[in-house]
Amino acid sequence: MGELTGDERAVIRRARSRVGAVVGLVITVLIGLVGAIAYSMMTHAQDRQVWREVRYNATYGEPATPPGCAWLFTDVDGEVNGGPIPPPAGFPLVDDLERARALRTAVEDVVERNGTVYLVRTQTRADGRTVQAVFDTRYQLADRRHLLLALGVAELVGLAVAAATALVVGQRAVAPLAEALVRQRRFVTDASHELRTPITQAYTRVQVLARQAADADLPADHRAGLDRLAAAIRRFGAIVDDLLLSARLAVGPGGHGGPLVDLCAVAETAVAAETDRAVDRRLTVTVDRPPDQLLVNGIESALLRAVGELLANAVNHTPAGGRIALTLCRAPGGVVQLTVGDSGEGFDPAVADRIFDRFHREPGGHERRYGLGLALLREVVAGHRGTVEATGHPGAGATFTIRLPGAPARPGAGRWWPVRSRAR
Ligand SMILES: Nc1ncnc2c1ncn2[C@@H]1O[C@H](COP(=O)(O)OP(=O)(O)OP(=O)(O)O)[C@@H](O)[C@H]1O
Ligand SMILES: [Mg+2]
C-alpha cells in the first residue's frame, strides 16, 4: 500500500475491517450456535435418562439395595423406613409421602438443597407400600459445568481463530482494490511522464518556428497563430506537469522537505492573475501580508492552483463593487495561515463542509462550473498536511482559511515547467 494516499488507505482499512468484522462475527455466531445446540441436547438427554432411572427405582427398587446416588424410602401406614445408607439432610419429603398415600397418585418434585439438585418421585405401589425415590444429580450437574467450560474455551479459541481468519480474509478481499488504486495512479503518472518529452520537443520546435517566422517577416496573423500554438503547448505541458505533481502530492511529499515555497509570493501571483477579471467586475482586491516570507514545504504550482481557485470563486460569487481580502499570517504552532474573504453572496453554513465534495454545486449555479475546484483544493492542501475550512452566511460573504505547516528557511529547488495560474 506504499503508493496509496491517506484517504485511500483509510478506505481500504475500513473495507478490510468491515470484511474482517463480518467474517469474525459469522464464525463466532456459528461456534456459539453449535455450543448452544450441544448443551441443550446434552441436558435434554440427561434429564430424560435420570427421570427414567428415578421412575424405575420408585416402581421396582428396594431401600436395602439402592442404586448409586439414590435413596429409597418406604412408608407403610405412616411408618417410614430408609436403606442402610444415611439419607441427605431434609429427606425423605414427608409432605410428598403423605400426598401420594392420600391421593394414591405419583408425585414428582425437583428440590434444590445441600448445594445440589435432587429429583424425587413418590408413588404408591400395588402392594400398598408408598415408596419415595430420591436421586442426587450432582454428577450430571458437574458434567454440565464441564461442558460449559469446554464450550467457553472453544468459544475463546474460536474467537482467536475468527480474528486471525478475519485478518487474512480481510486482507485478501481488499487486495484487488488497493492494487486497482495503485494501477490507476501509475497509469496517470506513467502516461504523464511519457508525454513530457514530446511536449517539450514540440514546445521548443514551435518557439524556434515562431522566432524564424519573426525573422522571415511572415504576415502578422501567421505569427500570432504560432504564438497561440506555443501558448497552447505550454498549457498542455503545465497540465501534464500538474498531473504528475498531483500524483506525487497524493502520496504525501508535503512537509517532508519538498521545495520551499513562499505563500505570500504565491498569493500575490494568484492576485496578479485575477487582476483583469477583478478590475472588469469593479472588485477591490487587497493583500495583507507580513514583510517577511511565509515559507512552507510543498509544490508551488499546486499551491498556486489552490489559492487561484479561492480567488476565482471569490470573484465569481462577489457582485460588482465588492471586496476581496487576502490575509497571510503566522498562526500558533508554527502554522502558516492564508485567508480569502469576500463580501459576496456567501452560502448557507449548513453546506460549509459539503461544498468541498466533488461535483457539489448549489442549485442555480453557473452551467460551466463543475463543483470540482474546492475538492481539488482540499486534496492539494491535505497533500501538504494542511487544513482548509469555509465559513459563510447567505448575503454576508464567504471566508476560506488554509492552514499549512510552516517550514524553516532554506534554499529552494527549481521546477521543470513555467507555472501559470488558472485564469477564467
Ligand atoms: N466565495 C464563495 N462564495 C460563495 N459560495 C462559494 C464560494 N466559493 C465556493 N462557493 C460554493 O461552493 C461551491 C463549490 O465550489 P467549487 O469551486 O468546488 O466549484 P465551482 O466553482 O462551482 O466549479 P469549478 O470550480 O469546478 O469550476 C460553489 O458552487 C459555490 O456554491
Ligand atoms: Mg470553483
Please describe the topology of this protein.
Layout: H1 6-60, E1 70-76, E2 79-81, H2 94-103, E3 107-113, E4 116-124, E5 130-136, H3 138-215, H4 220-250, E6 260-262, H5 263-280, E7 284-288, E8 295-297, H6 300-317, E9 323-331, E10 335-342, H7 373-383, E11 387-392, E12 398-405
Helix pairs in contact: 1-3, 3-4, 5-6, 6-7
Magnesium ion is lined by residues 309, 312-313, 369, 373.
Describe the structure.
- With 424 residues, this protein is α+β, with helices and mostly antiparallel strands.
- The protein has helices at residues 6-60, 94-103, 138-215, 220-250, 263-280, 300-317, 373-383, and strands at residues 70-76, 79-81, 107-113, 116-124, 130-136, 260-262, 284-288, 295-297, 323-331, 335-342, 387-392, 398-405.
- Among the domains are: 70-136; 260-405, Heat Shock Protein 90, CATH 3.30.565.10.
- The chain has seven helices and twelve strands.
- The strands form three sheets. Strands 2-1-5-4-3 form a five-stranded antiparallel β-sheet. Strands 7-9-10-12-11 form a five-stranded mixed β-sheet.
- Helix 1 runs antiparallel to helix 3 (138-215).
- The chain starts with 5 loop residues before the first helix and ends in a 19-residue tail after the last strand.
- Bound molecules: adenosine-5'-triphosphate and magnesium ion.
- Magnesium ion is lined by residues 309, 312-313, 369, 373.
